[in-house]
């Protein structure tokens, strides 16, 4: 009788230990950089790095925005009409092209990474300068538009701080800021030495 109890306890302990070890292994794998790179890729690396250096924008922020905006699909098209990897609206695209002195710009070019990525990064640099590096404001403006963010700030709808994003009247923009900031931290962690 005593040996049966010992045997049952041994079997129970073996199963618990196995589940514990499998759980630890799963946690290790899920948190490892090589695993996360499957879900957080770095496509268009040369373009992103080149233009982020040129316009002094963090490439990890750019990746987080592209991942959130289009999931890296250059053919992405939003219901509102935003296009390409960085989801640039055609009117904004024309304005950016004018600022960047891109000749013969057509809105279809927003689907092409060699145009979309530099234009999106240029626009981020513009917003960075406009909002003096304040990331929540930059992201809110990238998503909802610069004029809307200025209005929210001037009429005190939003304090402009990350911890107050729930004050933003657009739930989409609230979620956008949180998603990009979350992805940004992951990109910084898994590609930390790039």
Kindly describe this structure.
The protein is an all-alpha fold. The protein folds into 2 domains: 30 residues; 154 residues, Lysozyme (Orthogonal Bundle), CATH 1.10.530. It is built from 9 helices and no strands. α3 packs parallel to α6, α4 crosses α9 and α6 packs across α7. The longest helix has 30 residues. The termini are far apart. The model has no long low-confidence stretch (mean pLDDT 91).
Topology:
Elements: H1 2-31, H2 33-39, H3 45-55, H4 59-70, H5 90-100, H6 113-130, H7 135-144, H8 146-154, H9 171-190
Helix pairs in contact: 3-6, 4-9, 6-7, 7-8, 7-9
Short description:
With 194 residues, the chain is mainly alpha-helical. Helix content is 66%, strand content 0%. The chain has nine helices and no strands.
What descriptors fit this protein?
single chain, 194 residues, mainly alpha, Lysozyme, 2 domains, 9 helices, elongated
């Amino acid at each position: 009788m005593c040996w049966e109890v010992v045997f049952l306890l041994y079997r129970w302990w073996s199963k618990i230990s196995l589940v514990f070890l499998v759980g630890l292994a799963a946690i290790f794998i899920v948190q490892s950089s090589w695993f996360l790179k499957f879900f957080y890729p770095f496509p268009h690396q040369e373009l992103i790095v080149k233009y982020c250096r040129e316009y002094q924008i963090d490439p990890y922020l750019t990746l987080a925005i592209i991942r959130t905006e289009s999931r890296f699909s250059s053919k992405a098209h939003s219901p509102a009409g935003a296009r390409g990897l960085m989801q640039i609206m055609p009117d904004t695209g024309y304005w950016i092209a004018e600022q960047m002195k891109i000749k013969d710009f057509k809105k279809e070019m927003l689907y092409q990474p060699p145009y979309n990525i530099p234009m999106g990064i240029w626009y981020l640099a513009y917003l960075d300068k406009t909002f003096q590096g304040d990331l929540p404001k930059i992201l809110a403006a990238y998503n909802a538009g610069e004029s809307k963010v200025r209005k929210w700030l001037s009429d005190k709808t939003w304090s402009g701080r990350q911890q107050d994003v729930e004050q933003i009247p657009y739930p989409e923009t609230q979620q956008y800021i949180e998603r990009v900031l979350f992805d940004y931290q992951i990109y910084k962690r898994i590609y930390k030495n790039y």
